[in-house]
Amino acid sequence: MLRIYNHFISRTVILLISAEIFVLIFMVYVAASIRFFDYLDPLPFTFLSLLPEAVTFTFVMILSMSAMGLYQVDSRLNIKDTLFRLMPSMMLGFGITTLIFYLLPDLYLGRGILGLVMLLALSGILLTRAAFLKWSRLGILESQAIVLGIGGKAKEFVEQAKKDPSHRGFKIIGFVPLPDEELHVPAYAILPKVDSLMSLVNRYGAREIIVAIQERRGGCFPIQDLLECKLNGIKVTDSAAFFEREQGQIRVNSLYPSWLVFGGGFDQSLLRSGIKRVFDLAASGVLLAVTLPVMLVTGLCIFFEDGAPVFYRQERVGKGGKTFMVLKFRSMRSDAEKSGKPQWAAADDPRVTRVGRIIRKLRIDELPQIFNVLNGDMSFVGPRPERPYFVNQLCMEVPYYNVRHSIKPGITGWAQVRYRYGASVDDAIEKLQYDLYYVKNHSLFLDVIILIDTVEVVVLGKGGR
């Protein structure tokens, strides 16, 4: 993993993007050469003259593929899933590229060349992905690690493997037990006893040791063995730091108050706040201009189906625990909570109207929150704001839940693009772990990544209820 502005990016993803940038640029020149191939006349372009068009096309295509989730871990697992996401990416990229070339006549590829480029690019990307899939199956790109501990913390690695058995890029070789530690991992996964950790590392070719021990005080903690490994170039990582790096989340049950106090991140500087506010205003202004016709049509559809009111105001908890009224399109019946008690939204919730079902799936019901952002109650990107009733409940049941209120809530967020719709305490814990990652590592770079990933959530209707 490489850390860019506090956010971890897989080396495999960086290598894949680099390879596909080369393929896309190369295909522009191949298409132009085929289109203008003539045995008598030289080609009517040079490398430099066609470079602006090639770079523009490549930038748009990489952005379109990113928006369809083609650089997320789960999209690199099989060709079928790749093709499912690549086709809309190509159509989106073709439309945007055509518009750019129309608006900027100096940048122009003829329709014949552009059509040929799209066909060649599709073939080139599929071949590149097939090669990466082959390398992934062979384990060439895998990093191997040994987990120190067999207790409750070590069990998280077993559970993670069950949730994501096809995960590529990292392999846990096995677990090393410590004295008086209760067994929580399968016995077959325990590595044989040797003289030292360094001997075990050399035997299995591990590159990293992950410390997953609940209690580190006393004489059983092998500090000298870990120091020897560290001095020999082996990475030694805490389990909390591992999940932050590999899963983009901060595990609640691995946290200590001292880790939050002395750890890096949690940037609340005046400069960061100023940059984020400018970004909020710019992004909200653009989104409002683009979606205003959609919002007008949505309002009319809600009114004709279920009458007034079109909008729905609801109390939510914002930065510092202060409450504000969030604005949304009404997607449920007017008497959705006639009992007076707040309820979690459920799958196929009978309270949702026909129009509401569509706008919730496409997240159109969230668009009026643009005005909350412009008003300063919310940010464009951040943890989703929750109702006071549920916040009070979750603060009692979930450790560190209030940490997410140290920054402004957002229309979209890291938890929204990485996890399904939350409708229970267990879901709230999972989403909190992603929210904690964002609170700790938020930056303009991560905000842009979340916005790009949000396109996939909206287009594919992921997580909506």
TrEMBL record:
One of its GO terms (molecular function) is phosphotransferase activity, for other substituted phosphate groups. GO terms for cellular component: membrane. Keywords: Membrane, Transferase, Transmembrane, Transmembrane helix. It holds the Pfam family Bac_transf. The keyword Transmembrane helix applies. It is a multi-pass membrane protein. Its main location: membrane. InterPro entries: Bact_transf (IPR003362), EPS_sugar_tfrase (IPR017475), Sugar_tfrase_EpsB_2 (IPR017464). It is found in: Membrane. Belongs to the bacterial sugar transferase family. This is Sugar transferase, PEP-CTERM system associated/exopolysaccharide biosynthesis polyprenyl glycosylphosphotransferase.
